[in-house]
Amino acid sequence: MKSLLEQAKALAPLLAAQAREAELLRQPTDEVIEAVRVSGIYSLMVPKAMGGHGADLDTFFDVVLELSRGDCSMGWVISFYIEHNFWLLHYAPEVVERVFDGANYVLAPGTLNLTGGKAVKVEGGYRLSGQWPWGSGLVHGTWVLAGAMLQMGEVPAPYIFLMPDEDVEAVDTWHMAGMCGTGSQDFRIDDVFVPEAYGLPFSLLTDVTSGIDARHEGPLYRTPLLPILGIAASTPILGAAQNACRTLADQLRAKGEGRRESSVPRGDSALRIIGEAAITLEAAELTLRSVLKDIMARRKDAPSQERQQWMARIAHAVSRCREAGSAIGAAAGGGSQRLENPIQRALRDVNTASSHAVFDWDSRFADYGRSMTGEPLVGGLA
Question: How far apart are CA 262 and CA 268, in angstroms?
Answer without folding.
Answer: 16
